[in-house]
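ok so i was messing around last nite and threw this chain in just to see what happens. nothing serious, just curious
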Amino acid sequence: MNPSLTSERVRAVDWLRGIAVLFMIQCHALVLLLPDLRQGDTTKFLLKLDGLVAPAFLFSAGLALSMLLVRSAAGGKQGDRLGRNFKRALQVLGAATLVNWMWFPLLREPRWLARLDILHCVGLSLLLVLPVATALASRPRVLRGVALALALVVFFLSPLGEAVEGRWAYVLNKSTGAVFPLLPWLGFTWLGAYVGAVTGEQGRAGLVRALLFLIGLGAAGWLAAEPLNDLYPWHRFFVTNPSNAAERSMWVCLVLLGLVELERRTASEGAPSRVRRFVETFGTSSLSAYFFHEALLYFHVFGFSFEKVWGNRSGWGQYTLLTVALIALTYGLCLAVDPLLNAVRRGARTGADLLAGSFGEKFARLR
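result:
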């Protein structure tokens, strides 16, 4: 395989994340609707689409982590990539804590620190996948087999996880208030790691084959809904059943496959369009977009937030205008703040390199 074909950036993954961010903002903005409208058929349809947002984020996170580790191992830079991925996971968990602080009085009631929302789930999933992916990155065929097996194990154990009590319940099910516990959501990260391992080794052709395989596997699981439901004691079918996870993963892979084809068709074009730059900004700044839209929607600044002023008061027309405004403000904040954050990261990296070089010189003189 030509190294240039396996090391190029897969922008379709950025587009998938960017689209997921847009649907996420739209979903969270539903709190602005009148309560009666939130019970209607239109809202139910939107929520069904929004059910793909979390799987898309987790799948993309696992894909990127695994793909970059496999590429780094092939280039002899696995240690550097391990450090970056570890820092990224900690950044996600830090942002998750900050968002929880906006919602809950953490200083008075620190128990809310243990409440898992989507960012906590992404961060913990990355930390769980990272050591396995790092250990097997130099053997991508083994990695993809292990990742796929672990994904299936997580999905098939998820209905049983609803019965877990005690401390483990904080991370395994919703009984303690977790919004996104590890079961079944960790499974989507492992699926992404499987696709990332194939992509890192085989490039775009491997990515397409892996997506087609998961689409077929997902369709089979979706069609087996009845026997898979009967296999377990009573459980929340649309949350933890393997058939539900199979359907969600199938749709996510179908969307990504379409985006890969779109990227292939537009690869030879000149400068990216405004729409592409818009979506890519959200795709590459998804963590910032999550934080900023949550802050605008819920956090009271000088007595203002979207939810405080318009929550439970909007018809569909006003909701649409407010959602567009929320997206635009989030986009503007990402454009304004992310260059500063990148400059800080580059400065910290340069400082660390200089410090390491200084210690190396001193060590050499001592010898």
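not much to say yet. The radius of gyration is 21 Å.
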